[in-house]
# Entry
Amino acid sequence: MTETTSVTDDIKRSTHTVEIETLRSITSGIASFGAAVRGSPLSNAQKSRVLASLAEASSNMLVATSAYMAELGASRGRAATLSTAE
# Structure
């Protein structure tokens, strides 16, 4: 038996994949930057300041990502409600 999917399902799936890859890329970049700072010739005090800024930026990115995912879920929920109402 062949399973069929709608174009909407395919778009949702590909969009979700893009979102996951974007988050992986951001996370990887933050980790790479942190490793570069730790391995740099900066003094420990300088490293601490830079890493504290990086931690704050990472936290802000997490908050922004959470807000984005919540809004995306809400908009998808509205779209699903509209499509079932038709």
Observations:
- Residues 7-85 form one domain.
- The mean pLDDT is 81.
